[in-house]
Prior knowledge:
This protein is α+β, with helices and mostly antiparallel strands. It is built from five helices and seven strands; from the N terminus they run E-E-E-H-E-E-H-E-H-H-E-H.
Amino acid sequence: MTSDCKLQASVFMNDRGRIADPHDDMPDYCWVTAHLPESMSCGGQSDEEILNLVLCRIQIGNVIIGDCALHSLGFYCLSLPVKGIPGENAGQVLSHAETLTEWWLKQVRLGRVCLDQYSIFEATARTLEHTNSLEDVPHICNQS
């Protein structure tokens, strides 16, 4: 792993553990965050239902494009890392976020991944333990 590649826990997990996302301060990435209704709860709906709602929010532009992930900080939301810079070409960022969400939705339907609903609905702080338990590292960070 390259020393300049910083990682943090994604809201997605597989049978090997937590999947890694680029860290908030990675250059050329922004975060697309879809807020979820406070009536939702951890385990109260399927991962597919959550991702379908996120996809709908992205498609209508009812999201926040920012420089950090908001999941695991006490917000009812799911944040996705997207290649791009906040404030530049929002249409392209949303298009990438839609494609990414559709891909994750397919992975959930195939049983390859699941959502860490605790991070979405209950966690109020990212912990070192949470980030250090990463098992799947994106290919961009595996390059020597």
